[in-house]
């Protein structure tokens, strides 16, 4: 499975793919962001859901710079943007691509486990908090959901 999204952003190439096709790029970005920067144990970062998830990869000048995934039940996760690309709207590009795919897949509600420091980012994308703060991989998180229209 490979789909290139055109017209979303002229500076970036956005692809929708499966894990086997781009696992080196996906793992590289997530390892840098989660394992190196945030000290998440590598055995928690890479899991059995990667094989069945839909993945988004964003490329800038031929290099993969951001990724995210969505499971069949609408669970969005593993949103990761390389430090050099942060603050440029690349995370929003990943999320918009995933939300677009949720609509294609006729998913009526998406959800994610937001790191608490990223809550405002997801608020701005129409997600709302549900439940209480909790720890995941030693980091404060909160569950957030969004109805798809």
Using brief descriptors, characterize the structure shown.
4 helices, alpha+beta, Aminopeptidase, 149 residues, globular
Descriptive notes:
This protein has four helices and eight strands; from the N terminus they run ββααβββαβαββ. With 149 residues, it is of the alpha+beta class. It has one domain: 3-Layer(aba) Sandwich (Aminopeptidase), CATH 3.40.630.30.
Task: Summarize this structure briefly.
The protein is of the alpha+beta class and 149 residues long. It has helices at 19-37, 42-45, 90-104, 119-123, and strands at residues 2-5, 13-17, 54-60, 63-70, 75-81, 109-115, 128-136, 139-147.
CATH architecture: 3-Layer(aba) Sandwich
The fold-level CATH name is Aminopeptidase
- Which spans have pLDDT < 50 for at least 5 consecutive residues? none
Structural class: alpha+beta
Count of the separate structural domains? 1
Average pLDDT taken over every residue: 91
Percent of residues in β-strands? 35-45%
Report the total helices. 4
Rg (CA only): 14 Å
- Can you tell me the CATH superfamily? Gcn5-related N-acetyltransferase (GNAT)
* Number of beta strands: 8
CATH class: Alpha Beta
Strands across the major sheet, in which order?
A: 1-2-3-4-5-6-8-7
Q: Percent of residues in helical segments?
A: 25-40%
Q: How widely separated are the two ends?
A: 25 Å
Query: What overall geometry do the principal axes of the alpha carbons give?
Result: globular
């Amino acid at each position: 499975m490979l789909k290139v999204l055109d017209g979303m952003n002229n500076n970036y190439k956005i692809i929708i793919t499966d894990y086997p096709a781009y696992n080196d790029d996906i793992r590289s970005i997530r390892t840098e962001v989660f394992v190196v920067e945030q000290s998440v144990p590598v055995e928690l970062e890479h899991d059995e859901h990667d094989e069945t998830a839909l993945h988004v990869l964003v490329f800038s000048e031929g290099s993969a710079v951001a990724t995210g995934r969505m499971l069949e039940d609408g669970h969005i996760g593993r949103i990761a943007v390389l430090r050099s690309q942060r603050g440029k709207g690349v995370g929003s590009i990943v999320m918009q691509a995933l939300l677009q795919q949720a609509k294609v897949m006729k998913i009526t509600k998406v959800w994610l486990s937001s790191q608490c420091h990223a809550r405002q980012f997801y608020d701005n994308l129409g997600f709302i908090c549900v439940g209480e703060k909790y720890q995941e991989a030693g980091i404060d998180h909160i569950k957030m959901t969004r109805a798809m229209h």
